[in-house]
Specification:
Blueprint: H1 2-23, E1 27-37, H2 39-55, E2 59-70, H3 71-83, E3 88-92, E4 98-100, H4 102-109, E5 112-115, E6 120-122, E7 127-130, E8 133-136, H5 140-156, H6 161-169, E9 173-175, H7 176-181, E10 187-188, H8 192-199, E11 203-206, E12 209-212, E13 219-222, H9 227-235, H10 238-257, H11 263-277, H12 284-303, H13 309-324, E14 334-336, H14 338-374, E15 383-386, E16 396-400, E17 403-408, E18 418-425, E19 428-433
Parallel strand pairs: 1-2, 1-13, 2-3, 3-5, 4-6, 5-10, 17-19
Antiparallel strand pairs: 2-14, 6-9, 7-8, 11-12, 15-16, 15-18, 16-17, 18-19
Helix pairs in contact: 2-3, 2-9, 3-4, 5-6, 9-11, 10-11, 10-12, 10-14, 12-13, 13-14
Length: 436
């Protein structure tokens, strides 16, 4: 009986060890790379790499769905991948996604490149954007540097460097089937689970040497960026940066014209956040026009009250400044699709115009109220009705044009009698009885 108990206990212990070993088996880190490629993207990849090292992960899978972004940040990401001891797998996913421009550069930099169903890569020719519109960059110095870079990356991983070059020189686009046939990717996988099966047993050359992937039953650990990186990512969106900057400028003007509400505080904070989050250059012309606009509106409000040439000129200057505020993409700094840029321009202009109209209306109302305040004697001679009995020692209320006002009188005035306004001290009217 004793031996039987020991046998059962040993069997149960071995079973627990087996289950535990299975649960703590190989794993992979999955990281979503969406929206524009910026400094926050770099930090996300650094965090995922640190976590992969702690988890002793087999690989880091970058789920790519991006319009492109900063070339400087793209090169930094490529360097992180190249120096990594853990294999990076670039995977354009989910179905219907695209990894344009900088996204394609990152895919070509990974140890293993894969694409999901109905996905696209390409459109890597750099684009320059300014107030006059967008244009593809054909400068030979820039193009030659980028083509050599992507050719070298393709060669590192035995991919078709001629096709990789055409992503830039011909703005080539490929779906997953074409990319596999032309040898610019290694796998076409319908899902992450399928990808893990496809790459299992693959020998990957990393900075620490050859690594054989064991992913057939690997757990997927989804990496969630830290709060700090999420904050950086949110406020480094180029469209949001532009809108925050312009909204901050209008709020600052509104706050200056009507202090005490707190709009000026919000304006300063919005401008600072937009400048902190800006990976996109702000045009000098934009700053000049915005400063001129602020000066003209301040002059209109404080020096020559009204709403004349200075005010109109200030508003026009701000609107022109907002147009020049559209994100610009200087040579050798940005790789992003023209469709994304055009959508961004439309959004920025539309929202800025709406915000401008709203703040212009508020400023107009403030100026209107200020003009009314200066006309201190408009109430004198007006007719009102006593709501209360008013005596020399006891004020009461009168109704004047539907509004209730506190009033005093040197004479006794009975309730419901008609009175005439003879003076005003701030919000208190001075009245006398109306003679029949």
């Amino acid at each position: 009986m004793k031996n039987k108990t020991i046998f059962i206990f040993s069997f149960f212990l071995l079973f627990l060890i087996f289950i535990s070993g299975t649960a703590l088996g190989s794993n992979v880190i999955t990281v979503e790379i969406t929206d524009t490629i910026d400094q926050a993207t770099v930090e996300i990849i650094k965090e995922s790499q640190q976590r992969a090292e702690l988890e002793d992960s087999q690989a880091i899978i970058l789920l790519l769905k991006t319009p492109g972004g900063g070339l400087t940040q793209t090169f930094e990401i490529a360097d992180i991948i190249n120096e990594s001891k853990i294999p990076f797998i670039g995977y354009v996913y989910p179905s219907g996604s695209a990894a344009w421009s900088a996204g394609t550069f990152i895919l070509m930099s990974t140890h293993i490149a894969a694409m999901g169903d109905n996905t696209i890569i390409g459109s890597c020719q750099p684009v320059e954007v300014g107030p006059t519109g967008t244009r593809l960059i054909n400068d030979s110095k820039t193009i030659n540097a980028l083509t050599k870079w992507i050719e070298t990356r393709a060669e590192m991983y035995d991919r078709n460097k001629t096709t990789a070059k055409e992503f830039i020189t011909k703005n080539l686009n490929l779906n997953e089937s074409e990319a596999l046939r032309k040898d610019v990717i290694e796998y076409r996988s319908s899902s992450i689970e399928r990808l893990l099966v496809d790459i299992n047993g693959t020998v990957v050359k990393t900075s620490k040497g050859d690594v054989v992937l064991d992913t057939i039953a690997a757990r997927q650990i989804k990496h969630t960026p830290s709060i700090g990186v999420l904050f950086m990512k949110f406020f480094s969106n180029p469209v949001l940066v532009s809108l925050l900057f312009m909204l901050g400028v209008f709020a600052l003007i509104f706050g200056i014209s009507s202090p005490g509400i707190g709009a000026e505080v919000f304006g300063i904070i919005a401008i600072l956040i937009s400048l902190i989050g800006s990976g996109f250059s702000i045009s000098i012309l934009s700053i000049i026009f915005i400063v001129i606009g602020i000066i003209l509106l301040v002059v209109e409000i404080y020096v020559i009250p009204g709403f004349g040439a200075a005010g109109i000129g200030g508003i026009i200057s701000l609107l022109i400044g907002s147009i020049f505020l559209i994100p610009s993409y200087p040579n050798k700094e940005w790789l992003i699709t023209m469709d994304w840029i055009q959508d961004a321009i439309i959004v920025v202009i539309a929202v800025v115009v709406l915000v401008a109209i709203f703040f212009v209306y508020l400023l107009y109302k403030i100026l209107e109220i200020r003009k009314k305040k200066k006309a201190t004697n408009v109430y004198i001679g007006g007719k009102a009705t006593a709501i209360d009995k008013i005596t020399p020692g006891k004020p009461g209320y009168v109704r004047y044009k539907g509004e209730y006002w506190k009033a005093t009188s040197d004479d006794t005035i009975e309730q419901d009698s008609k009175v005439i306004i003879v003076g005003r001290d701030e919000s208190i009217l001075k009245v006398k009885a109306k003679k029949e």
